[in-house]
Each structure stands twice: as C-alpha cells, then as structure tokens.
C-alpha cells in the first residue's frame, strides 16, 4: 500500500543552500521526512534543517558524505537505514560548476567535475534505488541544467556532465518503470544562486536581457517543479527533461 505523503522520506543531495535547500524546505512543508545531504557546509546544512523543522512536522536529518566516495555513500545509506529513513524520493541535486575555456581544463579538473556531477549521481542512485524497487514505488529526480540541453561556450565541461545526466535520466527511466519507480530531470535556466557569483552586475543584467521573462528564476520556482514530479499522481511522467527557463530555450 502506498504511504501517505506525510510518511514518505526525501533525500536531497547538496541541500545546504541554493536550489537544494529550497527543495528540502518545499518537501518539509507537507510534513515529509527530509534528509539534507552536504559535504562540507555543516553550518549551512544545520541552518537549512532548522528552517525545515520550523515549517514541517516530519523528521529532519542532516548527513555528510563525499559523493565521490562509494564507501561514504554506503555509510550514508546505512545511517538512513538505521534511522528508518530510506528515501522514497531521491533528489540528485549535488553538483559543482566550472567556467573556463576547454583548452585550459586539466585532466584533474575534468575528473573532479565528472566525479561530483555525474559519477556521484550514479553511485547515490545505485545505493538508494533497491529500496524503491523492493516497495515498488519511488521517485528519482535529477537536477540538471539548460546547458545540458543546449551547451554553453566556456562551460563545455559543465555542459558535458549535465548532458550525460540527461541521458542517464532517460535510460534509467526505462529500466525502472516496470518497478513503479520514475526518473525525471529538471534542467533550470539561470537561477539566482551562488553558482552565478562569478558574474558581475553588468554581466547579470546582460543575462537577464537574454531571457524573455526578463529575470532570473528563484530557487522556490525550481523546487515547486521538483515537488510536483515527486507526487504519486505524477507517476505517468517518466524519462522527461523539463526545463524551467523563462522562455530562454524553447
């Protein structure tokens, strides 16, 4: 029997700030159990957890793991199992950006971004999906990027990881559909978060002028879409890459 929303658990990776924290808070507001993953931002994760507890009635846990490490992801899974908080919903949000010419990308930088943005999603999903398969219900939602759809000059590496994430989403959706588990991706356009801190005010203004909506997205606008995809009634939406981008890419 399908659990009520208030008894479900969501794991949001990279949830100490920005889009991840907004997603965690959105689920907390409906009383869901929320697990906030972070790697190093302990204080920010605790602050996100505090806001979740203020807004919801479910359990809230913070958990640290380096998603480049299979061992640490395994320990995170064991901790969730011991607390009865294995996720019914997994939001793979953790990721890092990289801005620069491809000619300047070293092999070390390439491996680092690939490991966090793509391999980390693969390993975290692989560790968490058996629980969903066993109960024949689950939602896996990957946070991608508009650049995974269109590519971006000076962001070749980042675009490559997000393009790979989109392909991962489509293929895994077909694999898990018979088990009652859906896999979708949300590929936002420009969102007002720290990922845009490398742009100055003039560059931000130019960016806004390129977007038909005339503004950047707010994290809450992305979290609402993620929440919708996680609902039981969204079960026929599967293998989709949905891009909330203000009409920037149509």
UniProtKB/TrEMBL annotation:
PROSITE patterns the UniProt entry points to: ADH_SHORT
Listed SUPFAM superfamilies: NAD(P)-binding Rossmann-fold domains (SSF51735)
Family that this chain belongs to: Belongs to the short-chain dehydrogenases/reductases (SDR) family.
MF terms (GO), sorted A to Z: 3-oxoacyl-[acyl-carrier-protein] reductase (NADPH) activity
InterPro entries: NAD(P)-bd_dom_sf, Sc_DH/Rdtase_CS, SDR, SDR_fam
Top enzyme category: oxidoreductase
UniProt KW keywords: Oxidoreductase
One Gene Ontology biological process: monocarboxylic acid metabolic process
Name the record gives this protein: 3-oxoacyl-[acyl-carrier protein] reductase
The protein's Enzyme Commission number: 1.1.1.100
């Amino acid at each position: 029997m399908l659990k009520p929303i208030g008894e479900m658990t969501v794991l949001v990776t990279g949830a100490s700030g920005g889009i991840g924290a907004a997603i965690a808070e959105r689920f907390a507001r409906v009383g869901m159990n929320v697990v906030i993953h972070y790697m190093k931002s302990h204080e920010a994760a605790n602050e996100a957890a505090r806001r979740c507890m203020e807004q919801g009635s479910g359990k809230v846990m913070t958990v640290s793991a380096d998603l480049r490490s299979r061992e640490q992801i395994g320990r995170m899974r064991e901790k969730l199992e011991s607390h009865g908080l294995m996720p019914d919903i997994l939001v793979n949000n953790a990721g890092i950006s990289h801005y620069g010419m491809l000619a300047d990308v070293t092999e070390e930088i390439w491996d680092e971004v690939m490991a966090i943005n793509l391999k980390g999603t693969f390993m975290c999903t692989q560790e968490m999906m058996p629980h969903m398969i066993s109960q024949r219900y689950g939602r896996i939602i990957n946070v991608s990027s508009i650049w995974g759809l269109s590519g971006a000059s000076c962001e070749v590496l980042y675009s490559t990881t997000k393009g790979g994430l989109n392909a991962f989403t489509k293929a895994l959706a077909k694999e898990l559909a018979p088990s009652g588990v859906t896999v979708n991706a949300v590929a936002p356009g420009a969102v007002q978060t720290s990922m845009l801190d490398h742009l100055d005010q003039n560059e931000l203004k130019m960016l806004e002028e390129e977007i038909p909506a005339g503004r950047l997205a707010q994290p809450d606008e992305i979290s609402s879409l993620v929440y919708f995809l996680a609902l039981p009634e969204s079960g026929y939406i599967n293998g989709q890459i949905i891009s909330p981008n203000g009409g920037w890419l149509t």
